[in-house]
């Protein structure tokens, strides 16, 4: 037996900082067993920014809570920076920062005091806490807010403070549970700037959950789609969209009969994965829309078919989810 038969080289991840195998959590609700997380495998490289995406109830928060030692797994293993969440929870906690959906800071405290107090809670000396608070105020742009009481901050400002509080102890791995939920688009973009900067400055690995597809698409270099407690897709947003959804081309002609002929013509093209005709419009799922659009219009013209309208669209992560599950992530998220 050769080495390549024993170990799949593609499965080896350089410098893994999170290694999760068969992670499972079941809850007992009344007399039924709820399998919130049903055997998740996940390996994350140092410095990666990973978005966990999935509809309500998919198991994202439960996964995060197990990885942050807040919840004991029913089965499976999870190593964070080489330490087991089950056997060495204190060691894990020293190396991670967790910013949950609720916020823990006292409303009457001032921002500066809150940051200094958090440093003290993590065992920093008074001077170290003050120095660290100054660094965090700078990193998360809290300068104008230091003398404000926490209760008076806006949602976006509060989230920035929550993140600062969660990273006082310079964690290697930062978990953010829905950091931008409920924020307006401008505040979301601003928070993302801060998350990006934080990552550049500290080299920390960041794992976050989000409901916002556009956000995961634009910001995360890796998207892990979770549904019913399992990972159903795991790749860069670009690769997920290219491999699982494909671009879409819609071609409209003058008559239904011409559309039928066009659908046949397009169906013969190897770059076309799926063809749907509705009336005089033919919609195609394709692997490379840019060249194909012109090619198909020319081919149609040679057959005497005039294309009157043409549109090429790139898929969204929702198309990926739809392709994988037959459901829209958007609808699933709002329905649950
Ligand atoms: N303590 C609990 N007891 C019973 N069931 C639970 C408990 N916590 C979570 N669940 C169930 O486990 C499943 C996964 O929940 P989880 O909160 O992890 O999902 P999620 O993907 O984070 O959802 P959301 O996006 O709404 O936060 C859901 O069916 C939820 O109702």
UniProtKB/TrEMBL annotation:
The keyword Transcription does not apply. Its main location: membrane. It is a peripheral membrane protein. SMART domains: AAA. The keyword ATP-binding applies. It is found in: Cell membrane. SUPFAM superfamilies: P-loop containing nucleoside triphosphate hydrolases. GO terms for molecular function: ATP binding; ATP hydrolysis activity. Keywords: Antibiotic resistance, ATP-binding, Nucleotide-binding, Transport. This is ABC-2 type transport system ATP-binding protein.
